Amino acid sequence: MKTVWKFYLVTLLVILIDQGSKLLVHFNMQMHEEINVIGDWFRLHYLLNPGMAFGMQFDIEYGKVLLTIFRIIASGAIAYSIYYLLKSKAHWGLLISLALILGGALGNAIDCVFYGVMIDGNVIPNSPTPWFHGQVIDMLYFPMVHGVYPEWIPSVGGNRFIFFSPVFNIADSAIFIGVVIILIFQNKFAAHESKMKAQQAVATEGKS
């Protein structure tokens, strides 16, 4: 039990950094204000995200509530998975990845549940209640490449583009990093799991 808290502390650290950065931006920047951090390619840009990634929403009255409840349930499942996988002696890299994902999920869930009540102007317009209808604060912006689509590309030819255009936050980053680590090292994690099961089987046979 003492060991599992080390991974939950990673989750807590992500939440603290995420919430701290969001509140610093809220109290020190105006909506849509932009500050160059490193040249033109790394900026702070204060935005509010009313729904899921890239601003997508459920087009029903209590869609935001359902989304937030889903996030909380998913977070509980991930938290339990960390505890269960630790007992199963899963690879520490997998547990760290899940802790990052959990921290990111809870970081954005906090915005959704409380910010509509705590922060003036944050609640989604025309919401039935400010609870569970807060908007997620985004601020990290990396418009690294500006260009124009070639004319021969259908629909978008001649239009300007920016790479990378989405504005996101620390919680989103933690989720992305956790998922990428799992995808890159999934074979290593699976091999470790197989090794642990083989060792457990040998130990069980030795006792019988």
TrEMBL record:
Reaction(s) catalysed (UniProt annotation): Release of signal peptides from bacterial membrane prolipoproteins. Hydrolyzes -Xaa-Yaa-Zaa-|-(S,diacylglyceryl)Cys-, in which Xaa is hydrophobic (preferably Leu), and Yaa (Ala or Ser) and Zaa (Gly or Ala) have small, neutral side chains
Keyword Transit peptide in record: no
Membrane topology classification: Multi-pass membrane protein
Subcellular location: Cell membrane
Transmembrane segments: 6-25, 65-86, 92-118, 161-185
Catalytic residues of the enzyme: D138, D172
Name assigned to this protein: Lipoprotein signal peptidase
Originating species: Algivirga pacifica
